[in-house]
Amino acid sequence: MTDGGSSGGGSGRGTRRRLLALLAGAGGAGLAGQAAGAVTTGHHRVHSASGHAHLAAPAVVGRAAPPKPLIMLDPGHGGKDPGAIGFSGTYEKHVAEAAATELHRQLLASGRYRVELTRGRDIFIPLEDRVGIAEGKQAALFISMHADALHDPSVRGASVYTLSSGASDAQTAALAAKENSADRFAGPRFRATSPEVQEILASLVRQETRVGSARMADSVVGAFRPRIGLLSNPSRHAAFVVLKASDIPSVLVEMGFMSNRLDEAALRTAAHRTVVASAMTGAIDRYFSRAAGGFTQLAG
Ligand code: ZN
Q1: 54-69 pLDDT, tens per residue?
Q2: Which residues touch 293 (CB under 8 Å, ≥6 apart)?
Q3: CA 84 / ligand 1 centre spacing (Å)
Q4: Is the pTM value of this prediction over 0.85?
């Protein structure tokens, strides 16, 4: 599983890096970097303790372990923005941070990923900056974690959101408006090359990103279904600013609703957050084990 996971993330990141290199007008850099990373014959010899270096077949010797994919976890809200305030007064920002911290712990313990948080403490970060942090570090996956409130306190259950220009339903549109109100909209930034080439490459990146995001959303819903209550039609989409990274598959997970007494009570317990994080870890494993594939040849 480890190999499958790593190579899936690696190839996705490689593709993205090549496309971004092209966008920056440095098309050769990504390919050169990839070639250099693939040859580590000397490294293998060092590992042979006996000194009688056993030379394996070239196909084996030439294969370096790809870097572990970086997962960027984004606990919603923080600092002056409490997020939703729960049925009994719990702040969403605290639930989001506690759940993300537990997921961070579980993912690191798996040994399969590098994991970072957009915020590891109670501070305010504008939405665009959260995207910027993930892009700057070339994350392979972006997961924003929330537990919002709805007007109807009877609505409960988890749901997963991906980016689209139009919302899948009115409830999701309202949710996106609420999430986005923490910040103002700003589109992805691209540099260099002609506008035509930029647009073509950008749309290819977005297409791959959309496919990846949808795959991740399916994976989360599948992992939650047996263990965690879900909304009806739990996979939804809307124009969430925090999901705007053009080149990183991104999902926003609503772990439940603070406006519902039962959801809030569950999310206040470490035991329930552990179950949520465990399901998320399973979803992430599944996402990376099904290698991204796609249009590797296009840029190469
Ligand atoms: Zn939220």
Answers
A1: 555 556 666 677 889 9
A2: 11
A3: 6
A4: no
